[in-house]
Amino acid sequence: HQKGEKGPQGKRISLKAAKNSMRVLFNGRRRLELSKMGIAVFPKVLLQLADVEEIDLSRNMIRKIPNIIEKFQNLIWLDLHSNQIDELPPEIGTLRNLTFLNLCNNKLTTKGLPEELTHLKNLRTLNLGLNCLESIPTTLGALKELIELGLFDNSLTIIPKSVKKLPKMERMNVKRNPLPEFAEEEEPIDTIKRLESLYLVEKKDLCESCLLTCQGERDELHKLENMTPVPPEKDLLTNSPF
Description:
With about 240 residues, the protein is α/β, with parallel strands linked by helices. It is built from 5 helices and 10 strands. It has helices at about 15-20, 160-165, 190-195, 210-225, 235-240, and strands at about 5, 10, 20-25, 30-35, 55, 75-80, 100, 125, 150, 170-175. The model is unreliable at about 1-10, about 185-200 and about 230-240 (pLDDT under 50).
C-alpha cells in the first residue's frame, strides 16, 4: 500500500506522520496525538519515537497491544480508549512510570487483564469502564497510588475489599454494574421510608429497564392516591418529572 492508504490493516502511519503528530505540552512532555486515525494495528514505526512521555491512540480500531510496548519506558500517560482491545500483554507491567492509563470502551475481559498490571505502582488514574469485565483481580489492591478508578458499565458483581480500601482513592465509578448494593430491595417498604431516598432524575438519564420500573411505581402511586385520602405533602411524590 501507498503511505496513508487504507488497507485491510487500517491506515498505515509513516514515520513522518508520526513525527508530525508530536505535540510538546506546557509541562515539557511530548505527546504523540494519533487519535481517530483509522489505525487497526499498533504502529511499529513508533519504536523510533519510543522515548516519548505520552501517547494518544484513542478512537482507533486497534485489537492488540504488542509486547513491544515495553520499549516505551518513558511513558507516563497512555490513552487507548475506544478501540477493540480484548487483552493486554504482560509487558504492560514494565511501564513503571505510567501514572495515567485509559482503557475505557474496549472489549477487555477479566482474562485479558494480566497480573503484571499490578506492577504499575505509580498509576494514579486507571479507566476500565465500558468493557466486558465480570470480575476484577484482587491484586489491583496493590496499586496504592490510585486516585481514580473507572469500572462503570461492566458485568461486575463484586468489588474486592483490597480495591475498595485503597488508601488514596478519591473517585471510584462503579455505575451500571449488577452489584448487589445496587439491587432493588425485595421486601416492601412503606412510603414514608421511601421518601428518605427520593432522587429526581430526567427520563433521558434512565436506561429502559429503570424507566419502566419508575413508570410502574408511579402508576402504583396514582392508584394509591385514588384509593386513600392524600395529605397535603403529596406534591413531593407526584411532581417528579417522569
